[in-house]
Write a structure and sequence with these properties.
The protein is mainly alpha-helical. The protein is built from 24 helices and two strands. Bound molecules: fe (ii) ion (FE2) (3 copies).
């Protein structure tokens, strides 16, 4: 049965999924990372780089903003040419990737992707890292200057964009890269390809190239942890939520009697289940009161967004559906797919119980975290109403103290520390 086969996932497809997840923070403009990947790969081509370097530049462009979790940070980055707090997301992105071997080569260029060339060239890092970091800075700023014009007057506006980039040659950007940009931008095609319809198609085509790197189940877990960190960072109220849900779901799966590898896959689904929350506006996630109908309707789209992010990854289909079904009820009252009871897998039911359990334990903007007896009371009521599987709820009740401990959020620590702690998580 395929569920028990070893997981091997193509790295390129995971990179695309990270970009899709992070791009959700852009709300109305979700193609910034794709365009930076496209521009960086076009300029690399213009510079005569090897095929491998062109692919690297594309992946780097796709990943460069993985340190951005909030709308507020996203909009500051795209609305200011040189934002004084830009270094924060560079550092977060660097720390997220530096210890994960398949993505570690992207860490240094991400750390310096907002460092002006005049400073960068003096740093004690490799020339390749300097070149790649500055290539992304340049591609990123080209996109920021051009973004308002893509679907309309880009061929008229491009001259202004070029003029302003050329003005920064030698200061912000390596003159060699600016020259390559001036060569590449001469063709209208360079600009037209940046329209949403075309750039999404370009990325789709790039996704068909399999990378040489295959991830094992342990590596997929590590990468899922990185993605969980990105979504959990979005709000103080969701800090560690995904990680705690994952650990709890894995524990419940074990006590249910599922095999080890199945438990690990459930853990991965737990880490990824709320990725779609990156698409929810910060003010809805943090509203200190009940959501109104419109806000609720937006909130309830997040598990579909999770599905959309994950479903394209070959080999991850089961995990994608377990993650995406975490708000489905046995009685068909959940959202957004309404599967029949018999189509709701035990894995999805376990994640649903773990999700509710953890959410009840944790503070929310409109209430504080509940003690164990209240948590169990609520779980029982949800089981009675057909929202949660009574068998899994009974299991959680039987092991209530252990579950309660696993669901607890560790005391909040800021900066490097909390990220290191998070990445050392071992469910
Ligand atoms: Fe960016
Ligand atoms: Fe959710
Ligand atoms: Fe959740």
């Amino acid at each position: 049965m395929s569920s028990y086969s070893t997981l091997t996932i193509d790295l390129r497809q995971m990179i695309l999924a990270i970009e899709t997840a992070v791009s959700q923070v852009g709300m109305n403009d979700t193609n910034h990372g794709k365009r930076v990947g496209y521009i960086a790969s076009q300029l690399s081509h213009q510079l005569g780089y090897s095929e491998q370097s062109i692919q690297f530049a594309f992946d780097l462009g796709m990943l460069h903003d993985c340190g951005v979790s909030t709308e507020q940070m996203h909009s500051s980055l795209v609305n200011h040419f040189d934002w004084s707090d830009a270094h924060i997301h560079c550092e977060i992105g660097y720390r997220l990737l530096k210890d994960f071997e398949p993505l570690a080569p992207f860490a240094i260029p991400i750390l310096y992707h907002h460092t002006p060339w005049r400073e960068l060239k003096e740093l004690d890092i490799s020339n390749l890292d300097k070149r790649m970091a500055n290539l992304i800075f340049l591609s990123d700023r080209i996109d920021v200057l051009a973004a308002a014009h893509y679907e309309t007057d880009i061929l008229l506006a491009k001259e202004e964009v070029v003029k302003s980039i050329v003005g920064y040659s030698g200061g912000y950007f390596d003159p060699v890269l600016v020259d390559a940009f001036q060569e590449a931008e001469r063709s209208e095609a360079f600009w037209i390809a940046l329209e949403s319809r075309h750039v999404t198609r370009y990325v789709w085509d790039m996704g068909q190239f399999e990378s040489s790197e295959r991830l094992s189940i342990a590596q997929v877990k590590k990468l899922s942890l990185i993605m969980a960190y990105i979504v959990d960072q979005k709000s103080p109220f969701t800090a560690q939520h995904s990680a705690r849900v994952a650990a709890l779901a894995k524990y419940l799966a074990g006590t249910y009697g599922l095999l080890n590898e199945q438990c690990e896959k459930i853990e991965i689904a737990g880490l990824l289940h709320d990725l779609g929350k990156l698409h929810i506006p910060d003010n809805i996630l943090e509203k200190p009161g009940p959501l109104n109908d419109l806000e609720r309707s937006i909130m309830n789209q997040h598990s579909y967004e999770t599905f959309e992010i994950l479903r394209h990854i070959k080999g991850l289909n089961e995990i994608a559906s377990w993650a995406a079904f975490h708000h489905e009820g046995l009685n068909g009252a959940g959202y957004p797919f309404h599967p029949r009871e018999r189509d709701l897998s035990v894995e999805a039911r376990i994640i649903a119980v773990a999700d509710v359990f953890q959410a009840l334990v944790q503070d929310r903007p409109y209430r504080s975290g509940m003690p164990l007896d209240k948590v169990l009371e609520n779980l029982n009521a949800f089981a009675d109403q057909g929202k949660l599987d009574p068998e899994i709820v009974a299991l959680a009740r039987q092991h209530a103290d252990v579950c309660f401990n696993i669901a607890q959020v560790e005391a909040r620590q800021d900066g490097e520390n909390s990220l290191q702690l998070f990445l050392q998580y071992d469910g």
